[in-house]
């Protein structure tokens, strides 16, 4: 069974993480599929918006650490790198529905979404420094711009988890929904976006994102530092402890 489920309806391409046995941890194959489905949707005139979601109890627990360590050369063709730059280049809007854990990339990818909804079970976390790494997806620029430097420093340097109400107060999400209504309401918003005049919608998105080249440069700097950190003794020790804890 595919680890990324895809369904097209009402002008919306719905992508859903489907690896419950690993709490939807993203491996390289999942990154490849996500990028492929997004790029296909971008070139399909019948697709006018994207919706991304996970399971009812887990959005994604972040990267599959073991898989990532086996493929740690973060060149331009690395599946995770291609996915991150794909997010930046999307012209069509993206909506996210978050339930349960949204760790690492599970939170940073939300910074590239247009509308984000969560239920009360959602737990967001940016534990990069905790793992002796640095942020990715432009989060080191986008998060301080969104929430202010001091709050971004708290979230990135301490790496503590925070709940949906905190995410709402920070402006990271649009609303906290009931678990029963979350996916349906997020889909309804995606369908509304898909029904808008597409050229006006996409041009408005571009105007609201005037610093794409700055973010692209920041993502490049992050990935350089991330690749160096992956090879550091500090990170190796943290990963060894993390993998040992996960196995027990």
From TrEMBL:
UniProt xrefs under PANTHER family: ENOYL-COA DELTA ISOMERASE 2, PTHR43684
Pfam families per the UniProt record, alphabetical: ECH_1 (PF00378)
Gene3D superfamilies, per database record: 2-enoyl-CoA Hydratase, Chain A, domain 1
Top-rank lineage group of the source organism: Bacteria
UniProt subcellular location: Peroxisome
Predominant place of localization: other
Descriptive protein name: Enoyl-CoA hydratase/isomerase family protein
InterPro entries on file: ClpP/crotonase-like_dom_sf, ECH/Chromodomain_protein, Enoyl-CoA_hydra/iso
Keywords from the named record: Isomerase, Peroxisome
Signal peptide residue numbers: none
Species lineage: Bacteria, Pseudomonadati, Pseudomonadota, Gammaproteobacteria, Alteromonadales
CDD domains per record: crotonase-like (cd06558)
Entry keyword Isomerase: yes
